[in-house]
Amino acid sequence: MWWFDPRTGNSYSAGKIKKANKIIEEAPTSGIGNDWVLVMDSKKYGPPGALNTTKNKHQ
Q1: What's the pLDDT at 59?
Q2: CB–CB of 49/42 below 8 Å?
Q3: What per-residue confidence (pLDDT) applies to 51?
Q4: How many CB atoms lie within 10 A of CB 51?
Q5: Which residue spans within the chain are E strands per DSSP?
Q6: The whole model's pTM is what?
Q7: Tens of pLDDT along 10-47?
Q8: Dmax over Cα atoms in the chain, in whole Å?
Q9: Cα angle for residues 46, 7, 47 (degrees, 5° grid)
């Protein structure tokens, strides 16, 4: 799980997803000009914003 900052293109680890009925996350910062995207995907992918050199079978 990653926090992605679309303003800078940087990604920050948000930890691993634990098996649960509910996931509660809070963005690293808040307020005007603080936009974040919480990315949850397979661990085989690198951080968002990084160039992914593996081929996607759906392309």
Answers
A1: 43
A2: no
A3: 61
A4: 5
A5: 2-5, 10-13, 37-39
A6: 0.68
A7: 999 888 887 878 888 889 999 888 899 999 888 788 88
A8: 39
A9: 5
| Residue 53 in tokens | 């050199």
User: From CA 12, how far away is CA 23, in angstroms rounded?
Assistant: 18
Structure tokens, 59 = 């392309």
CB 11 within 8 A of CB 50: yes
What does the buried/exposed string (b/e) look like for 16-42 if buried means 16 or more CB atoms within 10 Å of the residue's CB? eeeeeeeeeeeeeeeeeeeebeeeeee
At 53 the pLDDT is 53
Positive or negative: CA dihedral 17, 20, 22, 24: negative
Strand 10-13 to strand 37-39: parallel, antiparallel, or no bridges (unpaired)?
Answer: unpaired
